[in-house]
Design a protein that fits this description.
seven-stranded mixed sheet, 33% helix, D-Maltodextrin-Binding Protein, domain 2, 2 domains, Dipeptide-binding Protein, domain 3
C-alpha cells in the first residue's frame, strides 16, 4: 500500500515540475487543452446517456383555451353551442369513443358484440368505470340516458339517432340495443355521453333543462370540473377542469385545463395577445391573419367532413332540367380560386359527395383548371345542347316550344356568412364570363332554413352538408328525402336509392365503401350539384403541447378525441425499463 502511495506522490511531483517549467504560452495552451478535454468528455457522456434513455410523457402542466359565447347546456342530450359541445366532450364519456384516426374504440364499454343479422348490439361495461363523484357506472345509467334521449318531450337534438332502438338490461354490467333493421353507422351513436342516473333520475322533462347540473355537470370523462368562476350576473365566465384519476382510458397527462368565455372574436383575440389564453379554435380567417403576426402562435389544420357545393333545384328552375347546363356550369367553376380566396387556403377542392380520402378514387387532386379552355368547352356544350347566345340581351337562350324560351339566368341562395358570400361572388364572376346571368340572395341562417330550404324555394342553393364519420348519405341523396329531408338537390335515381339502402345495412366498411363508389359514379353522371370544397378549421395551441393528433372529425369538439394522450411534461426513462 505504501509503495503505491509513493508511486502516486512521485508522479504528481513530476507533473508539478513539468508544469512549473512551462512558459506563459505553454501554460495557456495546457489550460485550453484541459478545458477542451473536459468539455468533450462531458459531451460524450451526455450523448451516450441519450442513447440509453427515452423521453416519455409525464403528468403535470396546464393549458388555457378561449371560447366565444358561454355554456348553457353542458349535457350530451341538450348541448347546443360550440362551448356546450367542447365541455361536454371533455366531461362526459360514452360506451365508445372516437380516435384521431377516425376509428371507434371502447370507452365505458369493455367490449361489444353484434348479432349476425346486424340487429342486436350487446355491450359489456368495464369494471373500473366510474363517475366523477366516485359512483360506479352501471347498465341502469346507460338505459336511463338512452330513454331520456328518446323522450319526445325533452326534444333532444340526439333523439333521431335513437328512434326505434329498444334497450334491455342484461345485468349490472351488460346492456343490449335492438334495432328495427340493420344500420351500419349505429355504433357511432354509442359515443353519446352517459348521464349518472343517481343524479338525474328524479328530474322530470320540464326540470331537466333547468337543472344546475347543466352548468356544473358530473360525468365520467377524462376531465372533471374543479372550479366555476362567475361574472357579476352569476353567469359562468370560466371553467377550471382537472384530470380524472379513474378515467377508463387512463388518467390524462395534462393536469389542468381552463376555458375562458369571450363575448366576441375581437375580445378573444385581445385575450390571446395579452397572454390570458394559450389557444383557441374560434378564430375567423381575419382573426387568423392577425394571429400570424405573433411568432409564438402554433396552428393545426383539421379536416371537417363537410361537403360544400351548389345544389340545383330542378323543380323550381327549369333550366337545370337540361344536363348540358349543369355540365357547362360545373366545368367553369374555379375551385382553386375559391379555396384560396374565400377560405384563405384552409380547405380542399372536391369533385364528389364525399370528402377527399374516403374513397380510393377521390383523393385530393392538383388543380388543373384553365379558365379560357373551360369557358370555350362550356360554350361548345351549350351550343350542342341547343342554346344560342343572344348578343342583344347578353344571355343564352333555348327555345323549348313555340311560346316558351328559356334564358340561362338564375339566383343563388345562401347564408350571409362571409365565406359563403365570397364563394357566391366568385361563382357569379366565373359564370359572367360564360354569359350566364346570376343573382345572389343571402339570408340569416335561421331564415335560410325556415323560409328557403324548408319549402324548397330556391333556384340553386350554396350550402354545406355534414357527412360525419358514419358516411351515411341516405338522408342527403335518397329520393324519399326530397321534400322533408336533406335531399336539397331534389335528386331522384332508383339505382342510387338502392345503393344507399344497401350501404347503410352493410357492417363491413370496405364492402360499404364499394357501394358508395358506385353511388358516386351515378352522382357524377347526373350532376345534381356542383361539389366545390371541404373546409378545414384551425386550432391554435401552444408548441409545448405534445401528443396532439388531428384526423377527420365530426365536429370541432372532437379535437379532444385523444386529449388524454396530450402531454406537456416529460421524464427520462432508461430504455431497459421500457421493455
Amino acid at each position: 500500500m505504501l509503495n503505491i502511495k509513493n508511486i502516486y506522490r512521485t508522479r504528481i511531483n513530476y507533473l508539478e515540475k513539468i508544469a512549473k517549467s512551462f512558459g506563459l504560452t505553454e501554460k495557456a495552451l495546457f489550460i485550453t487543452l484541459t478545458i477542451v478535454l473536459m468539455i468533450s468528455s462531458l459531451s460524450l457522456l451526455w450523448k451516450m446517456n441519450l442513447n440509453f434513455v427515452t423521453s416519455v410523457p409525464a403528468y403535470g402542466g396546464s393549458f388555457t383555451e378561449g371560447l366565444i359565447g358561454g355554456a348553457q347546456f353542458i349535457n350530451p342530450l341538450l348541448e347546443l353551442s360550440d362551448s356546450d359541445r367542447d365541455l361536454t366532450y371533455l366531461i362526459y364519456s360514452g360506451l365508445m369513443r372516437a380516435t384521431a384516426s377516425g376509428d371507434l374504440i371502447p370507452d365505458l364499454a369493455e367490449s361489444y358484440t353484434v348479432s349476425e343479422d346486424g340487429l342486436t348490439y350487446t355491450f359489456k361495461l368495464r369494471p373500473n368505470a366510474y363517475f366523477h363523484d366516485g359512483v360506479k357506472v352501471t347498465a341502469d345509467d346507460i338505459i336511463y340516458t338512452v330513454e331520456m334521449t328518446q323522450d319526445m318531450n325533452l326534444r333532444s337534438p340526439k333523439r333521431n339517432n335513437w328512434v326505434g332502438v329498444e334497450t334491455k338490461k342484461m345485468s349490472e354490467t351488460e346492456v343490449t340495443f335492438k334495432l328495427n333493421q340493420p344500420y351500419s353507422p349505429f355504433l357511432e351513436n354509442t359515443t353519446l355521453g352517459i348521464l349518472p342516473k343517481h343524479i338525474w333520475g328524479t328530474a322530470t322533462t320540464n326540470q331537466f333543462s333547468q337543472s344546475l347540473y347543466n352548468i356544473e355537470p358530473i360525468g365520467s370523462g377524462p376531465y372533471l370540473i374543479s372550479k366555476v368562476s362567475r361574472n357579476n350576473l352569476g353567469i359562468p365566465a370560466s371553467y377550471d377542469l382537472k384530470s380524472f384519476d379513474k378515467y377508463t382510458l387512463g388518467k390524462p397527462y395534462i393536469t389542468d385545463l381552463k376555458f375562458i368565455f369571450y363575448l366576441n372574436e375581437k375580445d378573444l383575440l385581445n385575450g390571446y395577445l395579452r397572454g390570458e389564453i394559450d389557444g383557441t379554435n374560434a378564430l375567423s380567417l381575419q382573426g387568423l391573419e392577425s394571429l400570424k403576426k405573433n411568432d409564438n402562435a402554433n396552428t393545426e389544420e383539421i379536416s371537417l367532413p363537410r361537403v360544400f357545393g351548389l345544389f340545383f333545384n330542378q323543380n323550381q328552375a327549369k333550366i337545370f332540367l337540361n344536363k348540358e347546363v349543369r355540365q357547362a356550369l360545373d366545368i367553369t367553376v374555379d375551385k382553386n380560386r375559391i379555396v384560396n380566396e374565400a377560405l384563405g387556403g384552409y380547405g380542399e377542392m372536391i369533385d364528389g359527395p364525399l370528402p377527399n380520402g374516403v374513397l380510393d378514387n377521390n383523393e385530393s387532386k392538383p388543380n388543373s383548371y384553365n379558365k379560357e379552355k373551360a369557358i370555350t368547352t362550356a360554350k361548345e356544350i351549350l351550343t350542342k345542347g341547343g342554346w344560342k347566345f343572344n348578343e342583344t340581351g347578353s344571355v343564352w337562350e333555348k327555345k323549348i316550344s313555340k311560346t316558351e324560351t328559356l334564358k340561362l339566368a338564375f339566383s343563388i341562395s345562401t347564408s350571409n356568412a362571409v365565406e359563403l358570400k365570397k364563394v357566391a361572388d366568385i361563382l357569379k364572376e366565373d359564370w359572367a364570363l360564360l354569359g350566364v346571368q346570376v343573382e345572389i340572395e343571402t339570408f340569416d341562417p335561421s331564415d335560410l332554413n325556415q323560409s328557403v330550404i324548408g319549402p324548397r324555394k330556391y333556384d340553386a342553393l350554396l350550402f354545406g352538408e355534414i357527412i360525419n364519420r358514419s358516411l351515411d348519405l341516405f338522408a342527403f341523396w335518397h329520393s324519399s328525402q326530397r321534400n322533408t329531408g336533406y335531399n336539397i338537390a331534389m335528386y331522384t335515381n332508383s339505382k342510387a336509392d338502392k345503393l344507399l339502402e344497401d350501404a347503410r345495412q352493410i357492417s363491413d366498411k370496405a364492402t360499404r365503401l364499394k357501394k358508395y363508389t358506385l353511388f358516386e359514379t351515378e352522382i357524377k353522371n347526373d350532376i345534381p350539384a356542383i361539389f366545390i370544397y371541404s373546409p378545414k378549421f384551425i386550432y391554435v395551441l401552444p408548441a409545448r403541447i405534445q401528443g396532439f393528433k388531428s384526423g377527420l372529425v365530426n365536429n370541432r369538439s372532437e379535437r379532444f378525441d385523444e386529449v388524454y394522450k396530450w402531454y406537456i411534461e416529460t421524464d427520462q426513462i432508461w430504455n431497459f425499463l421500457l421493455k
